[in-house]
Design a protein that fits this description.
Number of strands: 7
Strand content: 5-15%
Distance between the termini: 37 Å
Structural class: alpha/beta
Largest sheet: 7 strands, parallel
Order of helices and strands: HEHEHEHEHHEEHHEH
Number of domains: 1
CATH topology: TIM Barrel
Length: about 260
């Protein structure tokens, strides 16, 4: 089966469920005491809605059909922020959160960024009682979104978690489709966990394709606790969109490699 289609995404989720994994949103990880006990198997399903939000809705519908729940993080721009889609995803029982990039949008001015952050958090709370947020990597920006928390505290706004800052990665393995593959940490600017990546790689916890992931799950080689991040813009059954995303992402990966080297 061709990779990065909605069909293989469904197969991936079904394989996880068949092998005993609970598929949960990030807020459930933060609020369920039993998950910290180390018992059982689960995957935190996280989606970064960078663009093409209608693709996210299709992924959310697949998850709903499997009784799985996920978290969808929306940016403020029109390429992500489509109220009709946000409402529909909430209506399917999923969590939504704010995919913040305020430092980049405010030119690195932390005070302006904090005000901007609060305004947009209130906006997304019109649709859902947002309790978690997640930084947008903004790979072409010199501003790291997380730098805002050097001066301000998001928990003062009743936020219970930020995946990069409030996940126990000594226990939870991180997996992302950045770069349109599952070992995209090699070309990622910010979407990675540097302090653990070398350790995971030495253990053989690195896969390139979704079919490789599925085989690892079936063979029992997949970790028991995982955060899996996808960018639904990359997942489509539409041939034209699929090939366009393939070509575009390959070009981006080349640029990222050069960016990292410099």
């Amino acid at each position: 089966m061709r990779d990065f289609t909605l069909d293989i995404y469904r197969e991936l989720l079904e394989t996880l469920q068949e092998n005993g994994y609970r598929l949960i949103p990030f807020e459930e990880y933060k609020t369920s005491p039993d998950l910290s006990s180390g018992e059982g198997k689960y995957v935190i399903l996280r989606h970064d809605v960078d663009k093409k939000p209608w693709n996210s809705l299709m992924a959310a519908q697949i998850e709903k059909s499997l009784d799985a729940k996920a978290t969808y993080y929306f940016r403020v721009g029109k390429e992500s922020n489509v109220p009709e889609v946000i409402k529909a995803i909430v209506g399917l029982g999923h969590e939504i959160g704010y995919h913040y990039e305020d430092m980049a949008l405010c030119g690195g001015d932390a005070d302006k960024a904090w005000s901007h952050f609060q305004t947009w958090l209130d906006y997304f709370r019109q649709y859902y009682a947002v309790e978690t947020i997640c930084m947008h990597g903004s790979p072409t920006s010199k501003w790291d979104a997380k730098d805002l928390w050097k001066k301000y505290d998001y928990k003062s706004l009743d936020i219970i978690g930020e995946p990069y800052l409030d996940t126990d990665f000594s226990d939870v393995f991180y997996l992302t489709d950045t770069g349109r593959c599952w070992d995209g940490y090699k070309v990622s600017v910010r979407d990675k966990i540097p302090q653990y990546q070398d350790e995971w790689t030495k253990k053989g916890l690195s896969w390139h394709t979704t079919n490789e992931l599925i085989r690892a799950i079936e063979d029992g080689a997949f970790p028991k606790h995982v955060m899996m991040t996808t960018h639904p813009q990359r997942w489509t059954n539409n041939d034209k969109e699929w090939y366009l995303e393939l070509v575009t992402q390959n070009a981006k990966n080349i640029i990222k490699r050069l960016w990292i080297r410099n």
